[in-house]
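Q: Given only this backbone (104 positions), what sequence would you predict?
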């Protein structure tokens, strides 16, 4: 395996979901660099390199969906419950009118 790319004959992890995010991102970069070399030298990608690209895209898409779902779950749990948004504008307006009378 080269420093900046991964050739079809180089070892490749069988289970990408066991890798850390940065490891998957580095592999993705190396596969894309290899694709560029193959297009330039051969005119088309090797089937193994193309397969690796597809696997990495699926893994990265899955991780993006998980991240988005966890952010949405955190946002919806923070927005639940009682807070100033429920009827606060009516109460706020009434208290402002009273404050204005007190200042006169």
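A: Predicted residues:
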């Amino acid at each position: 395996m080269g420093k900046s790319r991964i050739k079809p004959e180089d070892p490749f992890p069988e289970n990408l979901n066991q890798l850390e995010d940065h490891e998957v991102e580095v592999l993705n970069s190396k596969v894309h660099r290899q694709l560029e070399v193959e297009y330039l030298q051969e005119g088309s990608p090797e089937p193994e390199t193309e397969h690796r690209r597809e696997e990495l895209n699926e893994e990265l898409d899955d991780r993006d969906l998980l991240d988005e779902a966890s952010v949405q779950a955190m946002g919806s749990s923070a927005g639940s419950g009682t807070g100033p948004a429920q009827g606060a504008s009516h109460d706020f307006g009434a208290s402002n009118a009273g404050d204005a009378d007190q200042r006169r």
